[in-house]
Amino acid sequence: MARPRQLIECGDFVLRRWRGQSDFERAFTLIEESVEHLRPWEPWVEAHSAEHTRTFLARAESKWASGDVYNYAIAEGGTPIGMCQSYRGSEPQGRLMGYWLHPAATGRGIATRATAAVVTEMFALPDVAYLEITHDAANTSSAAVPRRLGFTEVRREQAPLPTAPSGSGINVVWRLERPAPPPRPDDHDW
Fold this sequence. Notes:
Strand order of the largest sheet: 1-2-3-4-5-6-8-7
Distance between the termini: 39 Å
Strand content: 25-35%
Order of helices and strands: EEHHEEEHEHEE
Structural class: alpha+beta
């Protein structure tokens, strides 16, 4: 099975695969410092704890190996400042994407550039036909990323429970299809 790169250079930051329990302190601190920033939009933060972070890191290892989830730390100067991931969708040829940043890292285009790097990496895999990003309709900051990257809004749907405290309960789903390969020089109609 083809796999994405474990380290992706993005200029002033890198995306790197989480390194299991050796990343515990870094991951826990990143989440701990971001809880209040994420709480309005991410229901999972209510379960934040040291044990939850250890479980996340253990699952990140096994899910990477199975191809179910490719979860990257967004790191600047060696310090994680966010996460970006791609995971299997309900259809075998589709993958879903997610991202979030530490509050001190927002407003600099990092989420857009990190997501763009993962988009490129996912479309390098032979079995990926499309990518989707889902966010709550009220989360306009998250909406900016797929819009900037050329995703198209394809539907709005009821959000699964539990919904985030600031959420509207309606998810917006954006899709980006695999780009067509450029024509080969010998492909022409004469």
